[in-house]
Design a protein that fits this description.
This protein has about 700 residues and is of the alpha/beta class. The chain has 26 helices and 24 strands. The longest helix is centred in the N-terminal third of the chain and has 33 residues. The relative contact order is 0.09. It binds adenosine-5'-diphosphate and magnesium ion.
């Protein structure tokens, strides 16, 4: 009888209660299923004996067989080592051990034939092998294994109790030679369509590979399976939400939208903007709640898309709110929108943490009686006991700074949950977006307004600072404004603050008052002071703004044409890209100057080079993903998708796309149901999501 997955490991021949308990304690392996999920981290070919004269120093683990012709203990105490020589008919190989010296020196026998197994390396021009495992020829013959053997990770405690990788290999040999029934969990149509190995074969192949090709097929199959179930879950949630949550129907595009579009729009929309507005319009008339993410690089013009959406809401008798992550940004949105809406019959107000009591009361009233159509603010807006007359649409700018919890509060502001439009300027690679935001509908603004001159990015080292100052002076004399940004991270906050202040003082010396005005903004300042300084810069009353990354998100000063980033090597790519996006917003040629020290790490150099070479946010995000891995990409950690065991979000884009396609096809055809041939898929999905938090309900 073959073993089964749910069986306790204890019943496998050669395991017994003690080993089973240890495996349970140390690796949480309880069942046979758990055991076969403990995938080897590498493999060795123990059937092949190498000739000593054919060994290369860069060979991986190999074994040689020969006579032990020398054994010598060198030194005393903890620094003692044991050296030996093994000889076959082609040559002699040096062996050396630094641990277990005493035991080895008594148990190894000179003149005996051994098999030495280890990794050869070059030491002082000589080949040797450190810490080879030694087995007598006799025992090697008796225990002979054929083919490639798995190497499993074990803990120290397991090793001490002689439950090492070899013992685990024995267990898996037993399991797979008796046979184990591993039920298939992918529909057969998918196995065929995507030429996937069966699940059973795949596991067998991962423990005992039969060849390169089959091994990679096995891995790919398990990656596919894993990603397929992630996608299926996300898409089902999306479908479920659309089914369960009614949305306000905005079916008329009325006078407000039309007259604004025809008479007040200060520019022609880009095709990408038009497309996205259309997608939003379509969402909002379905009667289902919209949950749409708009991804668009900095400067791609997301604000106007938001405004047009809010006008559609107003046309249908609904209010909108627009939330930004910082007070500066909220204020700026408010100003920008107010300007666009000048002489237009739309009530707009700004509510933040620092709104005065009397003003606040007035706003509360206006929202409740419907005089205010658009409420702009920070998340104070949802914390505040604001009561809307009829909230129909919530726009959330720079989504990753808003938590799930905050968004759920928003839902409670209206009897029918408002449509949600999330805007982000952090482009993420498409394959990652599929997984991260798989349960949102995604729109992409992949086109910048015409006439924008690409920003020129230049790298300078600290030694060239004088040239940079000269360049700044030239630009200022041309009437432009300059940002100088310093890194600021929590771990070195005091130090960073000092750098910033030193930099500020140096600027004051190079650009003295009253001829020049230099402003400063950082996170430790009081909001009112920050706002004041910022305001000076926005109004053009000052030439240089020295700041930390508080200006990172969304600030819009079209006259600013130079962004100097100090210690640029300390910033991540996406941050550099965000910062650079602060310039290049007006008609003038803009510049981004990356200042670094002379010495750069390899990654640092790649980041700087990428910035100099391209302004395409999606390309930059791709490089970022390769450099840092998915775990460091914004939003990934919170999403919990890092628990993937087989797939790698940075490198398995193709499999991701395929699995997404597979899941979409099944869902669109409504194939996956608990009461048909696909019931096992539903079961598998449940099993996989047991105990996981449901993030989808409120995104
Ligand atoms: P972001 O996508 O970074 O939020 P904004 O909405 O702030 O970008 O837009 C950046 C700038 O581009 C603003 O000054 C805005 O008025 C301008 N803009 C937006 N769309 C267009 C367009 N289609 N043509 C010309 N300028 C545009
Ligand atoms: Mg913006």
């Amino acid at each position: 009888m073959p073993y089964s997955l749910d069986q306790s490991l204890m019943y496998v021949k050669g395991v017994g209660p003690q080993k089973a308990e240890l495996l349970g304690q140390e690796l949480s392996i309880h069942t046979i299923g758990d055991f076969i999920h403990h995938i080897p981290f590498r493999y060795v070919d123990r059937s092949k004996i190498n000739k000593i004269n054919e060994i290369q120093s860069d060979d991986n683990y190999i074994q040689v067989a020969g006579k032990l012709i020398r054994l010598e203990k060198i030194g005393q105490g903890p620094r003692a080592r044991l050296t030996g020589k093994i000889q076959d008919d082609t040559g002699i190989l040096e062996l050396v051990w630094f641990q277990g010296v005493r035991w080895l020196s008594t148990s190894l026998k000179l003149g005996e034939i051994y098999v030495a197994y280890g990794k050869p390396s070059l030491f002082r021009q000589e080949l040797n092998m450190s810490h080879p495992e030694m087995e007598t020829w006799e025992s090697f013959q008796q225990n002979k294994v054929s083919g490639i053997q798995p190497v499993y990770s074990v803990t120290e405690k397991m090793r001490a109790k002689k439950l090492d990788s070899k013992s685990l290999a024995k267990i898996s040999t037993e399991i797979f030679s008796v046979g184990i029934s591993i039920p298939e969990n992918l529909p057969s149509v998918l196995l065929q369509e995507f030429s996937l190995l069966s699940r059973s074969k795949s596991y067998q192949e991962l423990h005992f590979p039969t060849g390169r090709e089959a091994f990679f097929q096995a891995k790919n199959r398990l990656k596919f399976e894993e990603l397929f179930y992630v996608q299926l879950e996300l898409l089902l949630n999306n479908q479920l939400r659309k089914k369960n949550f009614a949305g306000n129907i905005f079916d008329s595009v009325g006078t407000l939208f039309n007259s604004f579009y025809q008479q007040h729009l200060p520019f022609e929309l880009t095709n990408a903007q038009k497309r996205v507005v259309k997608e939003i319009r379509n969402d909002m008339k379905t009667g289902k709640q919209m949950n749409r993410l708009v991804q668009g690089d900095v400067g791609s013009g997301k604000t106007i898309v938001a405004l047009l959406s809010m006008l559609i809401a107003a046309d249908n008798g609904f209010q909108s709110c627009m939330m930004a992550p910082t007070e500066i940004l909220a204020t700026q949105h408010y100003r920008g929108l107010s300007e666009l809406l000048q002489n237009f019959p739309i009530g707009i107000a700004l509510l933040t943490g620092s709104t005065k009591k009397s003003e606040r009361n007035r706003i509360h009233e206006g929202i409740l009686n419907g005089e205010i159509h658009i409420l702009v603010g920070t998340h104070a807006l949802i914390e505040d006991p604001v009561r809307f007359k009829s909230l129909g649409l919530a726009v959330i700018d720079e989504q990753h700074r808003f938590g799930v919890e905050q968004r759920s509060k928003l839902w409670k502001k209206a009897p029918i949950p408002p449509h949600i439009l999330v805007m982000t300027a952090t482009p993420i690679p498409r394959t990652l977006a599929m997984t991260l935001y798989g349960d949102l509908d995604i729109s992409i603004i992949d086109e910048l307004p015409v006439g924008r001159k690409p920003i020129q990015t230049i790298h300078f080292t600290d030694k060239q600072r004088i040239r940079v100052l000269e360049f700044m002076r030239e630009q200022i004399h041309l009437g432009r404004q300059v940002y100088v940004v310093y890194p600021m991270i929590e771990e070195s906050e005091n130090m960073d603050l000092k750098f910033l202040m030193d930099g500020y003082e140096a600027m004051l010396r190079s650009f003295p008052r009253p001829k020049y005005q230099v402003a400063i903004v950082h996170g430790k300042m009081k909001p009112a002071d920050k706002a004041f300084e910022m305001d000076q810069f926005v109004k053009g009353n000052c030439h240089i703004m020295v700041a930390t990354t508080v200006i990172e998100v969304g600030v819009n000063v079209p006259n600013a044409s130079v962004m100097v980033i100090e210690n640029a090597e300390r910033f991540g790519l996406s941050q550099l890209h965000q910062l650079r996006g602060r310039v290049g917003r007006g008609a003038e040629q803009s510049f981004c100057i990356l200042m670094t020290g002379d010495k750069l790490s390899t990654d640092g150099r790649t980041r700087i080079k990428t910035m100099v070479d391209t302004t395409d946010g999606f390309k930059i995000a791709e490089v970022d993903l390769q450099l840092r891995g998915p775990g460091e990409m914004s939003g990934v950690r919170q999403s919990g998708i890092l628990d993937l065991k087989f797939a790698n979000l940075a490198t398995d884009g193709e499999i991701m796309t395929q699995s997404r396609l597979a899941a979409t096809t099944l869902i669109e055809a409504n194939t996956v149901q608990p009461n048909n041939d696909y019931a096992f898929v539903v079961e598998e999905l449940k099993k996989r999501n047991k105990g996981k938090r449901d993030f989808s309900a409120v995104s």
